[in-house]
Design brief:
The protein is mostly helical and 66 residues long. Helices cover 58% and strands 9% of the residues.
């Protein structure tokens, strides 16, 4: 699975189920066949780039406009 495909999976998952903890996001994508380390790497990069963010409860959400 390419990085772009994993990005799409991460964003789609957060769109379907907003406000997931990082572990919940990883677990959902691992269940779909994505490796744990790839999910974590892509999630950190999306956080760094501002495409996803953390809410006040430290849950991952899509940044507005993404």
């Amino acid at each position: 699975m390419t990085v772009r495909e994993i990005e799409k999976q991460v964003k789609a998952t957060l769109k379907e189920t907003p406000a997931l903890s990082p572990n919940q996001l990883v677990n959902q994508l691992v269940e779909r066949g994505v490796s744990d380390s790839n999910v974590r790497a892509v999630t950190w990069r999306l956080l760094d780039e501002g495409e996803i963010t953390l809410d006040g409860r430290m849950r991952l959400i899509l940044a507005s406009g993404h």
